[in-house]
Amino acid sequence: MIIINTEDITQLIEFLKLNIIPIATFLISLVTFIITFANFQRNKGNIVCQQIGNNSLASIMKPDRVDLETPDVYWQNDFRAIIDVIITNKSALPISIIEFTLNNKRTFNSYSKPGDRYCATTTPKDTIHNGVLSSGSERQAIFFIDDKWLQPVLDIPPYTSIRGTLFFHFNDPSDVKVGNNTLEIVTSRKNFSFSIRISGNVHSVLPLPDRILRARDEKFS
Length: 221
Known about the structure:
Keywords: Membrane, Transmembrane, Transmembrane helix
Distance between the termini: 113 Å
Structural class: alpha+beta
CATH architecture of the largest domain: Sandwich
CATH superfamily of the largest domain: PCu(A)C copper chaperone
CATH class of the largest domain: Mainly Beta
Number of strands: 14
Order of helices and strands: HEEEEEEEEEEEEEEH
Number of domains: 2
Oligomer: single chain
Number of helices: 2
Transmembrane segments: 20-40
Strand content: 35-45%
Shape: rod-shaped
């Protein structure tokens, strides 16, 4: 026959109260914290900006200037930075890109007006040397952008990537340089900074049209 000691039962209950129940409560709290933290990590703003090796377009260009609106409306500025990137939203929530800033100096946003095609003549067809006109092969670098601009405002769904081209115009050569530059992406969640490498430059050798020179004289006089 088993004799149950009431005192032993009471001691067992007290032991459970003092040890097992607090441990169980702690474990439940720990699991809840881990789940909450994991959800926080999944939902917080997180984007990645990449360039695809040597095949990625990333260049400083001084394009041929045809008139006040060709290749774009920024006739007062000589240079363009044209950069191909891939942006990935690694968050469980959507994110909106509002503006791009390069080196804390030049911006690309919903008000920017890039062109569809940029051409730089590096070797003209006709050249004059010692008063003698000679003709040869014309060489040009042409960038066809069309609808590939990543122009804000851009909405990126969760765990989705978008690819396109960024555009910056400037007149001071020191604003953007060949090599590493800093790209800041302003979003609806927070601002992100990335190192962007520009691989080279191409400059037009054609003179500016008289109409552009007159317009610049009027603007800066």
